[in-house]
Amino acid sequence: MQEVRVTRRLTALLLADVVGYSRLMGADEERAHQRLTDYVEGLIEPAVARYRGRLVRSRGDGFLGEFDSAVDAVRCAIDIQQSFAAHPAGDGMEPIRLRIGVNTGDVIVEEQDIYGHSVNIAARLEALAEPGAVYVTGAVRDQLQGYLGFNFEDRGERWVKNIDHPIRVFRVTYAEAESEAAPGRAWRRLPARLRRLYRRLVPPQPRWQAIVGVVLALAVASGIAVQSLWPGGGGPELPRASIVVMPFNNFSGDPSQNYVADAITDDVTTDLARLKGTFVIARNTAFTFKGRSIDARDVGKECGVRYMLEGSIVRIGNRIATNVQLIDTQTGAHVWADRFETDITDLLALQSAVTGRIAAALDIQLTKAEAERAAQHPTADPDAVDLRLRAMALAISGITPERTLEAQHLLEQSVKLDPNAAESWAWLAEILMNEYLHHWNNAGKQQLDEADAASNKALSLDPTNDQAYYAQALVHRAKGEHHAALEAFTRALELNPNLPKALAEKGNELTLLGRPTEAPPLVEKAIRLSPRDPALGGFYWIIGRAHFFSGDYAGAISWLRKSLALRRNDWYIWLYLVSAYALDNQLDEAKKTLREFDSRTQFAGYTLERVNQAEKTGPNDNPVVVAARQKFRQGLQLAGMPAR
User: Fold this and answer.
1) Are strands 167-172 and 114-115 parallel, antiparallel or unpaired?
2) What homologous superfamily does CATH list for 532-644?
3) What's the Cα-to-Cα distance from 288 to each of 168, 283, 311, rounded to whole Å?
4) Contact 634, 598 (CB under 8 A)
5) Lowest mean pLDDT: which of 148-152, 194-198, 343-347?
6) Which CATH superfamily hosts domain 9-181?
7) Considering only CA atoms, which of 563, 558, 598 is closest in space to residue 580?
8) What is the dihedral of CA 65, 71, 75, 77, to 10 degrees?
9) Which of 190, 197, 335, 547 is most deeply buried (CB count within 10 A of its CB)?
10) What is the pLDDT of residue 357?
11) Averaged over 8-31, what is the pLDDT?
12) What CATH number has the domain spanning 379-497?
């Protein structure tokens, strides 16, 4: 048998993917194809050539390039991302964004393509990256150490599909990187007419120097004052939701457990940095406090932050006990504290369980703390962020018709003051959907349309906003677009894996897609992340309905009773419990629960016909769902609910 000779070489790989390619093609196939072709010819091919690379393959939804050095590959990735950011879509079209992964390694070379393990890793990196971001492996980061201007955010070790070992992942903070690429922030500050003029007059290679000159000239001409980027350097006013995560202490009496405490500190810092509107001091600065006894107020002054998070771990047999405290650095007062224990089964699972719970809790606690601060120090003219924080505090305190309406008014004021506040638009979309789904405050199709517009506005301003994807998913669900809803919930969780409400609602969406057995594990994870969540009653409801749709009526009863104990004003929880009792042959309990339901003033006049009408607000023709809803009505009929 003739030996097959395989050609290999070491190379640096750049793999890019177009965000939402299917959605772009579905909206306008010919125009999207033409835009992508123009970008490849006008931006991507020149950038790859400029950094001495080769475009191996280019297809509609992405491309693969190879370079002789990791430095060239990363600089090219930065240049491409900044060029895309500088090209808004216009004409109401969605801007095209890329995710990029860069890896180095051995590849198999063929005449027209390259293959191998290193290419697969680059593909997994690209899938992890946020829109507009560049992700690299630890090997790439190591090769770029010492090159001025490259900054890296450690995103931890990730297990990815079809790779038998975890990959250390880093995000390149390319907006600040000094490279041959034009600095993205300076470029985007130039007016569109100047950018067009610049492209005609300035050749590619010296663009960095040219932009510096243009920006400096504009700054001098317009009298721009340079402000300090360090939070404590601009005066006494500290950034909202600014925090430093102090190195966690190991109180186990076993120095070998120090690495666990350090890993948890690192992961909590990374997870907090993902929360929108949160300013987090980098781990390298935070670790300078390790082993020092220092007052929270001194830390606040030194780092220029409002809050300090400190914690400790203690190993007790096969369990890790974690204590954590959130402290106000201006007063030294404890804002929040928690203690919980976790089984030690696997280090990665332990880190995920501990850091996820802390991050999920802090997402709520920081919002509450900042809202209380704004309430205690009201201003005659609150800004857009103050208004948003007050609205968020209302929403996370437990939704009611009154709180929802007040939060809506606050958010409408917020976006009026700052139309470019993506987070405010995203929260407005969710609040409007709460009104629509609960039929509160005379809500109708207008609220659904406004929520749709608000979520799209948020994503046009910030395509990495997890809250906006969450709200958009609720809109898709209300329209009966369940596959699109599942995709949006999934994207929200890719951006923020510690978002309990997205985990729970993704489970809910799986039930509505006829996959109810897949729902409980997701919702149970949400409960583990946020065991005191204001939406806990809703989480119980989602698990209860999943069991109902699976035909497990006894299991449904257990969860629906827990849900009803927390949410007495939701008709659907009452009636699914009634039906589950009836279908589980507990007819006396079913009739008793229905009588109690009917005795409550707000539920007067419920009939099978009214229930049918209410369920039409969530259209769904999935056979599993249709059959389950028929069983739901059958159970109500058995319990004695009138037809009309």
Assistant:
1) unpaired
2) Tetratricopeptide repeat domain (1.25.40.10)
3) 23, 9, 16
4) no
5) 194-198
6) Nucleotide cyclase, GGDEF domain (3.30.70.1230)
7) 558
8) 40
9) 547
10) 76
11) 82
12) 1.25.40.10
